Amino acid sequence: MTTKSGTSKAKSRPFECTACGQPAAKWLGRCPGCGGWGTIEEGLPAAASVGTPGAAPRATTRAASPVRPIGEVGLETVVSRPTGVGELDRVLGGGLVPGAVVLLAGEPGVGKSTLLLEVAAQRARGGGTVLYVTGEESAGQVRLRAERTDAVVPHLFLSATADLEEVAAHVESVDPGLLVVDSIQTVGSADIEGTPGGVSQVRAVTSALVALAKQRDLPVVLIGHVTKDGAVAGPRTLEHLVDVVLSFEGDRHSTLRMVRGLKNRFGPSDEVGCFEMFDGGIHQVTDPSGLFVGAMTGTVPGQAVTVAMEGKRPLMAEVQGLASKVGSEAPARRTASDLDTNRVLKILAVLQQRAKGFSFTQHDVFAATVGGMKLREPAADLAIALAIASSFRNAPLPYGLVVIGEVGLTGEIRRVPATDRRLAEAARLGVPKAVIPFSPGITAPEGIELTQVDNLEGALDAVGLLVKRDKR
Asked: Region Lon-protease-like: what ranges (predicted)?
């Protein structure tokens, strides 16, 4: 007879959420972690206890790796090698490190496969052997994309499989210098319970590929899906298992694409690489600020230009605002695109309360960026405020002006980080004027007329938008 603490308990299977990995003692209709319905499934067998609870771990007869002083640890194995795509190397910290596992996540259709096919082709052109594994498309579909993007090169091998054991066999036979897996959610193993893409399968497959990468010093790049809110799909352990996590962002209606570093064990985690997507493939943009220089015409109300920091990289960005009067009975709308909606609402309230002559109770207000660039940092506050005020007054801002600053609730304009680098980027592009928060010690770059302000009314007065009384 089996006791409660015997074999029957060892065979019990815990439950877990396929969306977020939240464990559960029994089946539930709704996940207590993420709130998803019908996502709780039976997981892997519960791990057997090792040793006596609370006892010290037993030492093995021989350690798997020697103990050395940290100064004697070699760095040869963590030297990055360029991929041939400069913008991606910028985000990776110089290139791919042997044995590193990189996760590239993004929305469907944004261009993840196209980018990595270009990386694979560049590595193969350099004489390296690359294995590209696709579990979502047929080999013919990938070949068609390669024809279109001029990625049909020797030493680039293609496998259309979704079986983990086949991937390992192909790696053994080809012995590549780079492995690309598209995508991690489609690869599964018959030895692991659950369907491909489930928590158990994704965790086990990723662990196996990480072990393979470390064993062979093989850089591995995994393509990952994202959820509707932009988070990496699958268990959170997926992001912990890999060495580098990159986010591939972009609006499918725009050609601009950005690779953003979220985690990097070998370099900075706040860099951004810029690309443009065309029918003939994806091309890197080494000077993305040039995409926004044409906005500084100063002829249309509702335009303002700022300098945003994407990681350590200053980029010119255009903000547009529109304040349109509505009927007395119609409710006023507030819409923000590629901007933080809550920040836009805050700026509207401050503009109405702290600046004379502004009232938006009978105005629809729209705010957006141009070119698909997403602005989330507070340094764009002043540009949002002046773009909306310019539209409200139906008066354009001065020609060739950039504005930088955070707007506080009391109407003060606060200093922002890297002001000197932002101004240097504006000077490089020939910007003649800038409005910034009052910053002691800041020196205007050559060619820029610098105006420093303390509050929102001072900024409005500096650009000619402040009046004593609202004439409307």
From this structure: 364-472
